[in-house]
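Per reviewer request, we include the raw input and output of the structure prediction for the construct analysed in the revised manuscript.
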Amino acid sequence: MTPPLEDWPPELRAVVTAGREGTEAAGRLRFFGTVMAGASLPDDGAEALALAGLVMRACGRQTPGQVASRLASLRVEAASRVRAARAPGRGLRAGSGAVEAGVPEPSHAGFFGVDVHQLRHGRFDGGMSPSLRREVFVVGDAVTVLPYDPLRDRVLVIEQFRMGPFGRGDPLPWQLEAIAGRIDPGETPEEAARREAVEEAGLSLGMLEKVAEYYPTPGAVTEYLFSYVALCDLPDGMAGVFGAAEEAEDIKGHLLSFDRLVEVMASGEIGNAPLLLTALWLQRERGRLRAAR
């Protein structure tokens, strides 16, 4: 449960009130309290502040009920923002880091969100860009994992209906993919990978090998992926149909030899970027993983 107003830490009150005083500050506090009624703040202090910032962005734009209905998605976004703040610093990149931006305006707020930003950013010549209007599709961090049995030299991939290909007009909008899902608040990417493997394939994973972490579509989407290969036992009969009924998931598993995976990839039937990236990584590291067994 969210603690009473008088028990909120000063940092949280500062985010909620945003420097306002008097009746305006009281109204903002009421808004946040109403949104969070019956809900708990994240245990992680940084996530709690990030969540408060996301909730208060909607103050004056949406009703407390509308924001409360999206609280689960906002929690995922808050956790994603905390991970983003811990990203690697400057190496090769020459960008200044200078960005002047106002408060984003939500143009859609459902399971996912679409935010409209008005901003200027630093240019490589030292100046600032003109004022730009940009839209971004807001998606929380997610994980992908490809189960690999080094003894049998086989993988398990999944197949499911996907809205992206359907919306593009693909006549067969079922995709071959690695196991994947959003990282829940309070989870590490590794914990999410293990949970999703149980939910989507009935698998208990062994050691996880990180493939990469990356933005799959940085031009317009906030999603950030953590991709893994997981060592596990994949005997005959392991591939079935799984998925969370409450999410209307219908997910079919396919057991493939490594050579068959490469054939399917070369044929162009795998059009899913995380699986392509992971399969290429496995192609490079397969000898090491097999030798270690």
